[in-house]
Design a protein that fits this description.
The chain has about 190 residues and is of the alpha+beta class. It has two domains: about 45 residues; about 120 residues, Alpha-Beta Complex (Aspartate Aminotransferase, domain 1), CATH 3.90.1150. The protein contains four helices and six strands; from the N terminus they run αβααβββββα. Strands 1-2-3-4-5-6 form a six-stranded antiparallel sheet. The longest helix is centred in the first third of the chain and has 38 residues. The protein is elongated, with a radius of gyration of 32 Å.
Length: about 190
């Protein structure tokens, strides 16, 4: 019996030693793999290719982060649902044509348009059944845009799906708005 106990003890020690060696090999292999992963260049797609879909808020208004420049405005327009996207494209083109040096930004999930000297003069926003164009100095425009506001200087134009877009009138309003002093919002930064 003593021989068996001694043999079992020796076999146990040998198995434990073997297990330690195996564990050490596994650890060494795992560490080498981690080191290779850390030094290897990640296989990452550019942000534009892996961009998350834009969340639509109530009324189908795209949720775009606050940012300056044309890119966030174009992202907003691209995310506008259905027929509203074409209205956004046309409005953007009209504004750019009327005021070539226009400043653009997204604020409060809306595209804003302004000039360096006068500040923001226009924004638009998606609602369920229409796109609302806000002229911040609209009370000074001739003829007055049709929609009233709680703020006496602001006037609105609501564009519904089947409404014809009077590009000549909008161009006139945009040109007039671009030279009015900003009354509501801070100047573009």
């Amino acid at each position: 019996m003593a021989k068996r106990a001694a043999k079992a003890k020796t076999n146990g020690a040998a198995r434990a030693s073997e297990a330690r060696k195996t564990a050490a090999k596994r650890t060494k292999t795992a560490n080498a793999g981690l080191k290779a992963k850390r030094t290897a260049k990640p296989d990452v797609k550019p942000k534009s290719a892996a961009a998350k879909p834009v969340k639509l808020l109530s009324g189908g208004n795209p949720q775009i982060a606050k940012a300056d420049g044309d890119a966030p405005v174009q992202a907003y327009i691209a995310a506008m649902p259905g027929w509203k996207r074409e209205v956004g494209r046309r409005l953007d083109a009209i504004i750019l044509s009327a005021v070539p040096d226009v400043r653009k930004a997204v604020r409060w999930n809306c595209p804003f348009y302004g000039t360096e000297d006068q500040g923001w003069f226009l924004a638009f926003h998606c609602y369920t059944k229409f796109v609302k164009v806000a002229f911040f100095g609209g009370a000074s425009l001739r003829p007055l845009p049709p929609g009233e506001s709680k703020q006496k200087e602001v006037r609105y134009l609501d564009v519904h799906e089947d409404d014809p877009l009077d590009e000549a009138q909008i161009t006139t309003w945009v040109k007039q708005s671009a030279v009015l002093p900003a009354r509501l919002l801070s100047r573009p930064s």
